[in-house]
Hints:
Layout: E1 3-21, E2 25-39, E3 44-50, H1 61-76, H2 84-94, H3 99-117, H4 121-124, E4 132-134, E5 137-139, H5 144-157, E6 161-165, H6 172-187, E7 195-199, H7 206-216, E8 221-225, H8 233-242, E9 247-249, H9 256-265, E10 270-274, H10 275-278, H11 281-294, E11 298-301, H12 307-318, E12 324-325, E13 338-339, E14 342-344, E15 347-349, E16 359-360, E17 366-372
Helix pairs in contact: 1-2, 1-3, 5-6, 7-8, 9-11
The chain binds magnesium ion.
Magnesium ion binds near residues 199, 201, 225 and 226.
Amino acid sequence: MNIVSVTIYRKDLPLADAFEHSSSGSITSLEEIFLKVEDEDGIAGFGEVRGNCQYVTGDTPNRLVGVLSDALAPALLGCDPLALGRVHEIMDGAVTGNTGAKSAVDMAIHDLLGKALGVPAYVLLGGKNHDELMTDVSIPFCPPEEAYDRTRRHIDDGFRLIKIRVGLRPFQQDVERVEAIRRAVDDHPGGREVSLAADANQAWSVKEAITNIRQLTPHGLLWVEQPVASGDIHGLRDVTQRVDVPIMADESCGTPEDVLRLVSMRAADMLHLKICKAGGLNRIRTMMSIAEAAGVPYMIGQMDEGMLATAAAVHCAAASTGEHFELWGYHRVALQPISGLRAEHGRMFVPDDPGLGVRVHEECLEMVEEFHL
Ligand SMILES: [Mg+2]
């Protein structure tokens, strides 16, 4: 079942609901790269990765296409998908870093392997722990009145965990937005079941983080995510040790090596794992195992991406022992070139079809380059 062809596609997915947080700038469209790998029996697997992700992985659409086309696609031809560990060695030998491009390849191979073996991808990750996954939903930077209305709508729609983007200057703007959201939760008849969290996306210095988080603490946050710069692990540890609210590492927690460093330094109380930062589903499996061994809770999330990348994250989440999930970003996309993932009332259903369990409408994608053995 060796790989005989690799095809690279692009597709911009305009958002029905544009968003902005501390590090993203305004995002109006997801500039996605798709990948198809096909084996000699004609079985195809698909992967997806976000192109305009310069603020997390350093990727741009052209960089991803360049790395896939110059290094990874040619190296994949002739590889055996059953030897996934060897495929990763070959990818790491072809180009260092570039977890985004490698995650698209790894995702496509999990899809292909699942289809070839007749099992859903979560089986390849150790088996299913969850049939359904309650996902959080994010409230972006917006005026307090809008934040109040969005919160009410999200609770009406069934969400029970709402994540608030913070990190504006002056900080008073964040305070007013968090107060409005807390008020909306308390005013709502279903509000007692709703939890709040916040994400600063690296916006603060260590001192600002400690002061600001202490000011937000009375609003009852389940966690505050990535208060300081991703590379400042000592600073992250200082914040974690000096506030009562649990601190979650996201941008600081890209790879298995990062998980090892964070848990051994006790630099964060919780971890946020995403496929594109990790370099693939099997790297996420490793990260989950380290966190589980260390007794550190983690969340399986994703960037705002299309439905294929979301399906891959859903399979990782299904195989996890995690309690929190962030799998809703694809709902902002106005028109999907993928179908098959089912969600309702803030709840994602885990697909049981072989592979990633979704259907890619290839005719909607724009082909960039094809490689054949
Ligand atoms: Mg985050």
